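Students often ask why inverse folding is considered easier than folding. One informal answer: many sequences map to the same fold, so there is more than one right answer. In these notes we will look at a single instance of the problem. The structure comes first.
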């Protein structure tokens, strides 16, 4: 029979995991409390939190959400989970930047919007620009050909108007001179 405190802790972890749109698993062995506090301070403004978890309890919680995914590999050794409630790519970038400064922080992998990623894939995803930048690039890519098309269709009409305007001005000059 599980202890009530552990049941409650599993439920808390489950709720955090359920509310997050991304979970990033890291190993923090060797990092000081000050280092972890600094890391938490960097990701807090990005709508994320970094928590050290007990592997068995976290695994019980995550199996409720992803029962068919092989996630045991993320819960070996000291584990911390970054819960991302906003844009996960900004948080990933902050974590990767922090890991460059603090080599003891190791990525284990992650789950982003329901997809499981390895440690290397998580690091690659961190290289992507933020969602807003990607969206603006897509809009730009879509609108550029349309703008060219509009200009191409408008050009002959503009040329005709300019020609007619030039003819009208020329006739006006001739009528003034007579």
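Output (designed amino acids):
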């Amino acid at each position: 029979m599980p202890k009530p405190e552990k049941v409650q802790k599993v439920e808390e972890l489950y709720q955090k995991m359920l509310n997050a749109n991304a979970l990033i698993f890291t190993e923090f062995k060797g990092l000081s409390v000050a280092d972890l506090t600094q890391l938490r301070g960097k990701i807090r403004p990005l709508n994320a939190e970094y928590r050290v978890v007990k592997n068995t309890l976290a695994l019980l919680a995550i199996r409720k959400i992803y029962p068919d995914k092989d996630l045991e590999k993320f819960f070996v050794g000291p584990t911390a989970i970054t819960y991302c409630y906003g844009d996960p790519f900004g948080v990933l970038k902050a974590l990767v930047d922090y890991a460059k400064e603090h080599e003891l922080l190791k990525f284990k992998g992650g789950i982003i919007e329901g997809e499981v990623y390895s440690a290397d894939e998580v690091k690659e995803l961190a290289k992507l620009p933020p969602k807003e930048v990607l969206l603006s690039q897509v809009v730009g890519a879509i609108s550029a050909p349309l703008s060219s098309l509009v200009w191409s269709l408008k050009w002959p009409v503009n040329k005709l108007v300019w020609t007619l305007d030039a003819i009208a001005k020329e006739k006006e000059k001739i009528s003034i001179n007579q």
